[in-house]
Amino acid sequence: MDFDDLIISPDATHHLYCGSPIYERRFDCVGPFCFPGLAAVRDGEGAYHINFLGEPAYNERYAWTGDFSEGVAPVQNRDGRYLFIDEAGKPIAFETYLYATGFSEGSAVVYHETLGATHITTAGELLYGDWYYDARPFSGGRAYVRDERGWLFISPDGSILERTGEPAEPFPLCGTVRYIPPENPIPAVLRDTAWDAAAVLMRHGEREPFIKGQPGSTKVLTARGKRQSRAFGAALPKVPLRTYASPMVRCVQTGDEILAGAGVSGETKKSLMLGTPSAYVADDDIVREFYVVNPVKIMSLRYVAGETLPGHYPVTEGTRRMFDFVSGTLAEGEISVCVTHDAWIVPFVSILTGYDFTDDWPGFLDGCILLRRGGAYYLWWRGEEHLLDLSPLRE
Q1: Torsion of CA 180, 183, 185, 191, to 10 degrees
Q2: Chain region(s) in the chain for CATH 3.40.50.1240
Q3: What angle do helix axes 284-293 and 296-304 make, rounded to 10 degrees?
Q4: Which residues form a coiled coil (predicted)?
Q5: Residues 64, 72: contact at Cβ < 8 Å?
Q6: pLDDT bucket at 394, cuts 50 / 70 / 90
Q7: Which CATH architecture has domain 186-394?
């Protein structure tokens, strides 16, 4: 059955095939069927999606539901916030937005109240690393965005194509904020803080964006990710430097670029404690399958809240294992950089400091610093230094 053969009835309450209803139920209104075979509907319970039998595709009800495109649909919850769901009704990420469009050419426009406007992928990832005052959907491989100087066209990798005039088509809102990331503070902290030994546990540099249904293990650093990693290395204090990394290519690339920027010869040492699987993972096969169908950010927040996740060590035990690894890289008068993934930075920092990551997720090259000073351990994170009490990790 072709989707084009399924027609919305004249009163928009059901769907027809060859002039006959395909199910008995009637709704207040219905939208077209879209891949993967779901249609947006509304009735007295709210808005949701149905299958060809007229059955709900999931249990949740929303204030509004958009059409599916590329296996993802925008919806608006009853609080007025926008998010995206997959065909099973699961959110593709934990973020919600002031406004969101449907997907076009592999991306959707989203507006955030404190960050601005940008494009995201079908996996809920930023398509590129920038935010703007305004953005419009991609068409023909380019999209309108607005910065401090006015409107311009960008390509899907975020490159500026040309300056242009304001788009003629009306849009529901006009942005008033734009987030510009500050300079990475870690090198300055290491230069300006007293320490006997220091280790940085950080997320890798900017990588290619995740796309729904594509493996994430093959993603490599973008050109900007390489430049920023090299610049990070160049800004570090001129002391002996070693790098360790998850065996994922993007992490090893980050470590190597940091060494190159610092002018240090040598190679990044790979460690399974930092990823694939990591200090937090007891069964890598189970965890790989688990994260194929469960968003990392949502699961990480549940993990630090104490939930037992399949294939994971208890979060406190995993944090002890990660601490033992990172502290084991410390050497007097030296800096070690341990490149890992956001999923493992979150429990490490959260368990050691109590930090709440609900509205603040680690970005690329974002990280914490483990400092050893006078026989005590301190963890620097988000501008604060925490004296660590390690006794809970040893219980």
Answers
A1: -170
A2: 186-394
A3: 120
A4: none
A5: no
A6: confident
A7: 3-Layer(aba) Sandwich (3.40)
